[in-house]
Amino acid sequence: MFDLQSALANARFDGIAQIRELGLQGMITLRGDVAAPVLKKAATAASGTAMPGQRKAVFSDTGGMAWMSPDELLILCPYAEVTDRLEALTDALAGTHALAVNVSDARAVFEVSGPHAREVVAKLCPVDLSPQAFSPGDFRRTRMAQVAAAIWADDDQTLRIICFRSVARYVFGVLSVAAQKGSEVGYFQAG
Amino acid sequence: MLILECPCCGVLADETELTAGGEAHLKRFGPESSDDEFEGYLFRRENPRGVHFERWRHSHGCGKWFHAARNTVTLEVYGTYSAQTTEPPEAIRQKISGVAPGWKWRLFK
Ligand SMILES: [Zn+2]
């Protein structure tokens, strides 16, 4: 059997926020006409959630779905279920102009948590991460330092980040630097 | 810092999230065209002080191409619009005329 490993084997860093690499996460990229009923039906069945609105993400206990672009969705599920869910999704989309691909092993997922989590990420991304502008349910693709990343908020003090696996070490590094002890900015007042 | 609103995903993206795609509304000349047309398509570009139309890609966001109308002197952004068009929309042309009467850019005014 293969010894399945996520990019950084649950690496963690504790500074003004806690950075954790979250391990293996099932992810399916789905491209197609997201307004088409057949695609909506197949996507919601695969994710176990409703359809997300523009720049939104929706989650359930075992899955999630994020709006990536006008013709792209990202379906999240437990890593062990991704093959089955992809097969069902592909079957449901037979004959439809759409593409579903397992990208789980092409990505890495991080969690940044704590009262300063927002400012750690805001140091690296050209995005308004104030609690008023970015709250749970929002989803944003952007640039994190020099690489592409996608961000959402689990709660007010917890952000999650997806990046390409090939740059996971880089992202962990810049997040750790941005979270160094004593580097609080205090721009977003907690609470 | 240039900030453009991506018409495909609605994000107010600063230029570091975008990739410049050069001049907008170029007409492609390929095989069978004259040497002058082909040279113009490949090399001749506007370089205006003032109103300008460009292609941009939301490369670190939704990934889509779009058009932007802006002023290279004042850095004012007149608007962004779909990539799926060969000319600036009327609403944007009128807006430009309001602030820069008599503007001219290639075939458009
Ligand atoms: Zn966009």
UniProtKB/TrEMBL annotation, chain A:
Record Pfam families: SoxG (PF04268)
InterPro entries: SoxG (IPR007375), TrmE/GcvT-like (IPR027266)
Protein's recorded name: Sarcosine oxidase subunit gamma
Automatic annotation (TrEMBL), chain B:
Pfam families membership: SoxD
InterPro entries found in the cross-reference section: SoxD, SoxD_sf
Xref: Gene3D superfamilies: Folate-binding superfamily
Name by which UniProt lists this protein: Sarcosine oxidase subunit delta
Source species of the chain: Arenibacterium halophilum
